[in-house]
Design goal:
Chain lengths: 557, 135
C-alpha cells in the first residue's frame, strides 16, 4: 500500500496551533506511508499539483488530505484522483482545522490531537476499496402532488419540457388557496382567473394526466423508478414516475386554537380569508369601525408557531385598503407587532395604506370582548406603554400559515423529513432549497415554509427544473455508500429486513438469504449494525474501517 | 507536598454526518473551544453505531463514549435515531451492571446547534475528568 499524506497549513489557520512540519515528518516513519508533506494551501493550484504529481510519480493508491472540514472542497480533491485515474473513493479527508486547530489553543495538545486524527484516517483508509458509482435507468415522468399554484406551475413546466406528468389533487378542483383570492397582490388579478389560465393550458397538453379528488395511498421504489398508488374516484391507479414534486401547500391557521380571540363565537370576528370570501356581501354599518389584528398564528411560541408567515402583513394591508375603498368614512386601525411588508413594492404599499387613512398601532391585544353594541379590544400600546380599550364593529384576524394538515402522513409515505414546525425540510437551506434528502423528490411552494403566490410559482418552477435536470439524463448515478450482503455469512434471520426503513432489503425465499436493492438503499448502515452474523456491510463504513479508526484515535494499534 | 498530576480523559464520540458532525464543523468555524480529549468518528447515521464499537472504544482505553445524532423525528434516514435510542438504552443497562453507566452518553444535536454540541461534550468531559481525578 502506498499512502500519501498531505497536511495543509491553511495559511496560519492550522499552522498557528498545530506543528504541521513536525507531523509530516512524524508520519514518514510509517511503512505504508510513501509521501508525507505539508503545504501552505493544498487547495491552491500549486498545492493541487503537488498532490497529482505525487500520485503520478509515486503511484499512490491512498491519498489522505488533512485540512479543512470534508464538506468544504469535497469534490475538488476527489477530482484530483479522478484526473490521475485513481478511484476517488480512495481519498480520505481529515478535518484538522474545524475539529482541531480552531477549537483548541494549546500547540502541544492540538498537535497530538491532529496526529491522532490523521492516524485514524490512515488506518481507516487502509481498508478502503475502489467504489463504483453505479448507473441506473430513469423513467422520464413526474408525479406532482398538489394542484395549487406551485404544483400547477411545476406540472406545466415539466410537461412543456416533454416529461409525462401525473398531477394529483385531493380537492375536487385545481387551484388550491389562490382560487379563493379575489385580488392577488400586487397585480390585483382575480385568483380564480390566474388558476383558470394555468388549468386551461395544462388540460390542453396530451402528456398530462390530472387526477382530482384523489389521494396518494402508497409509495415505493427509488429514484428514477418510483411506483405510486393513487386512490381516484374511478378506482385505484398505479403510476410509474421518475421523480416527484411535492406541492401540497399549507393549512390556514385555525383561530380556534386561540380561544381568547373569540373566533366563531361572534360573526363580527372574521379571518382575512373569510373577509376575502365574503367580499361585498359582508354586512357592515355605514361608517364601520374595523380592527385588524396582525400575527394571528405567527410568531407565537406558546402555540408552537414561532415563525413569521410572511404573507399576513400584506393580507392585513389588503384588508385595510379594501375596507377603506368601500367605506370612505370608515375607521380602520391595524394592530401590529412589527410590519414585515417584505415583497417588492410591499413597503410602498404600506405607506400608501397609511396615506389612505388607516391607523397603525403597535400593540399587544390582551382581550377581545363581544358586546351588543360593538366588540371591545383591550390591549397595550407598546410604543406609548399605555393600556387602551376601544370598540369596533368588525375584527379581522390576519391569520398565518400552518403546515399542511397531511404533512406528517405525506412525509412518512415519501420518507422525507419535516422540520420542527412540520413543514417539509429541504436538503440544505441555502445550497439545496428545493431538494429533499431523498433523491428525486422535490418540494415546492408553501409546504416547505410560508411563501406568497409569486414565490410559490417560482419555487414550483425551480423544483420542476431541478427534477427535469435529473430525469432528462435518462440515467442516474447511485451513491456508492450502500450495503452489500455476504451471502455465505447470511443466516436468513431477516432482522435487517425489518430494520430497513428504505425497504431495500429483499429476502430470497429459495436461497434463504437476503440481498440489497442497490438503487433503493439510502446508506444509513442500520442493517450493518443490526446483523448478528456480520453478513451485511455498508461500503465506505465497514466494521474494519470504523474499528481501526477507533483504535487509531486511542493509539491502541 | 507532592503536586498531583491532572489526568485528562479520552473521549470518543460517534457523530452522525447529517447533524452532529455538521454541528461540530460549525462549532469549529465559530472558533468555539472544547477539550482536545474529545475526538469524533464520523458515521452516516447514528444507527450505524454497532454497540460493539462502543465496547471496543472502552476496551482500548476511552474514558467515555458518546453517540450523537439528529433529534428524534429529524433523522435523515427517517427512523435511524429511534433504533439508536433503543440500542443505546439496552447497552446502558449492561454498562450499569458493571458500574460504568457514566461512561456512555447519548444525545441529540442538530446541524444548527453548534453551541449545544460544545456544551454537551464539555459537560461530559468535565464530569468524567472529575471522576478520574477522584473529585
Amino acid at each position: 500500500m502506498k499512502t500519501g499524506i498531505f497536511i495543509c497549513h491553511c495559511g496560519h489557520n492550522i499552522k498557528h496551533t498545530v506543528d504541521v512540519a513536525g507531523l509530516s515528518e512524524y508520519f514518514r516513519k510509517y511503512p505504508q506511508v510513501t509521501v508525507s508533506e505539508d503545504y501552505p494551501f493544498l487547495c491552491s493550484e500549486p498545492g493541487q499539483n503537488m498532490i497529482t504529481d505525487s500520485i503520478e510519480k509515486q503511484g499512490l493508491d491512498r491519498v489522505i488530505v488533512a485540512s479543512c472540514a470534508p464538506s468544504l472542497h469535497g469534490e475538488l480533491f476527489k477530482d484530483l484522483l479522478r484526473k490521475k485515474d485513481v478511484n476517488p473513493f480512495l481519498l480520505r479527508r481529515v478535518s484538522i482545522r474545524e475539529h482541531c486547530s480552531w477549537v483548541g489553543d494549546d500547540m502541544v495538545q492540538n498537535t497530538e490531537k491532529a496526529k491522532r486524527l490523521i492516524l485514524s484516517g490512515l488506518y481507516g483508509a487502509a481498508h478502503y476499496i475502489p467504489l463504483e458509482e453505479k448507473q441506473v435507468d430513469v423513467n422520464k415522468s413526474a408525479l406532482v402532488l398538489g394542484g395549487g399554484v406551485s404544483g400547477l406551475s411545476a406540472a406545466l413546466f415539466l410537461s412543456k419540457m416533454g416529461m409525462d406528468v401525473y398531477l394529483v389533487e385531493e380537492a375536487p378542483e385545481l387551484g388550491g388557496r389562490v382560487r379563493e383570492l379575489k385580488s392577488v397582490w400586487p397585480s390585483r388579478k382575480n385568483g380564480a382567473d390566474i388558476i383558470a389560465g394555468m388549468e386551461k393550458e395544462l388540460r390542453g397538453r396530451d402528456n398530462v394526466a390530472i387526477f382530482t379528488s384523489s389521494k396518494l395511498t402508497n409509495f415505493e421504489g427509488f429514484f428514477g423508478n418510483y411506483q405510486a398508488t393513487v386512490d381516484t374516484p374511478n378506482g385505484e391507479k398505479k403510476i410509474m414516475a421518475g421523480g416527484v414534486v411535492v406541492a401540497i401547500g399549507f393549512t390556514p391557521f385555525d383561530p380556534n386554537i386561540k380561544p381568547e380571540l373569540g373566533y366563531g363565537r361572534d360573526p363580527r370576528i372574521v379571518t382575512t380569508l373569510d373577509l376575502e370570501r365574503a367580499g361585498e356581501s359582508l354586512n357592515l354599518p355605514d361608517n364601520p369601525r374595523v380592527a385588524i389584528l396582525h400575527c394571528v398564528g405567527s410568531r407565537d411560541e406558546q402555540i408552537g408557531r414561532p415563525y413569521c408567515s410572511r404573507i399576513c402583513c400584506i393580507n392585513a394591508l389588503r384588508a385595510a385598503e379594501g375596507i377603506k375603498e368601500r367605506f370612505e368614512g370608515s375607521y380602520v386601525e391595524s394592530f401590529y407587532m412589527d410590519m414585515r411588508a417584505h415583497p417588492r413594492g410591499g413597503e410602498e404599499f404600506f405607506e400608501d395604506t397609511q396615506e389612505k387613512g388607516v391607523l397603525f398601532t403597535r400593540a399587544n391585544i390582551a382581550e377581545i370582548i363581544p358586546e351588543p353594541e360593538g366588540i371591545v379590544l383591550r390591549g397595550e400600546d407598546t410604543l406609548l406603554g399605555e393600556v387602551f380599550e376601544r370598540e369596533f364593529d368588525l375584527v379581522v384576524l390576519s391569520i398565518g400559515m400552518s403546515s399542511p394538515a397531511t404533512s406528517r402522513e405525506m412525509a412518512s409515505l415519501l420518507k422525507i423529513s419535516l422540520d420542527k414546525d412540520k413543514f417539509f425540510l429541504e436538503a440544505h437551506i441555502k445550497l439545496r432549497p428545493f431538494d429533499t434528502a431523498v433523491k428525486g423528490i422535490f418540494i415546492a411552494g408553501s409546504c416547505s415554509g410560508p411563501k406568497d403566490v409569486e414565490e410559490s410559482i417560482n419555487h414550483g418552477r425551480a423544483s420542476a427544473l431541478k427534477l427535469y435536470g435529473f430525469l432528462n439524463l435518462g440515467y442516474a448515478f447511485v451513491d456508492p455508500f450502500i450495503s452489500i450482503v455476504d451471502a455465505k455469512r447470511c443466516s436468513g434471520c431477516r432482522m435487517c429486513e425489518q430494520a430497513c426503513v428504505a425497504k431495500a432489503i429483499k429476502y430470497d425465499e429459495d436461497k434463504h438469504v437476503v440481498h440489497v436493492e442497490e438503487a433503493a438503499c439510502m446508506g444509513c448502515g442500520l442493517c450493518n449494525a443490526t446483523c448478528p452474523s456480520s453478513a451485511i456491510s455498508l461500503k465506505g463504513y465497514v466494521d474494519t474501517i470504523i474499528g481501526d479508526e477507533i483504535s487509531a484515535l486511542l493509539e491502541a494499534m | 507536598m507532592e503536586e498531583k498530576i491532572e489526568k485528562n480523559p479520552e473521549i470518543v464520540g460517534f457523530a452522525c454526518s447529517f447533524c452532529t458532525f455538521k454541528a461540530s464543523e460549525m462549532a469549529g468555524s465559530l472558533r468555539m473551544k472544547y477539550p482536545d480529549g474529545v475526538k469524533l468518528v464520523q458515521v452516516p447515521c447514528s444507527s450505524r453505531v454497532d454497540p460493539a464499537f462502543v465496547i471496543k472504544a472502552i476496551f482500548e482505553g476511552a474514558d467515555g463514549v458518546f453517540v450523537a445524532g439528529c433529534h428524534p423525528g429529524d433523522c435523515h434516514f427517517i427512523k435511524g435515531n429511534y433504533f439508536t435510542r433503543r440500542k443505546i438504552a439496552a447497552l446502558k443497562e449492561q454498562f450499569d451492571a458493571f458500574g460504568m453507566k457514566d461512561k456512555l452518553r447519548l444525545f441529540w444535536v442538530s446541524a444548527a446547534e453548534a453551541r449545544r454540541f460544545v456544551e454537551k461534550v464539555t459537560e461530559m468531559y468535565n464530569d468524567i475528568k472529575d471522576k478520574k481525578n477522584g473529585r
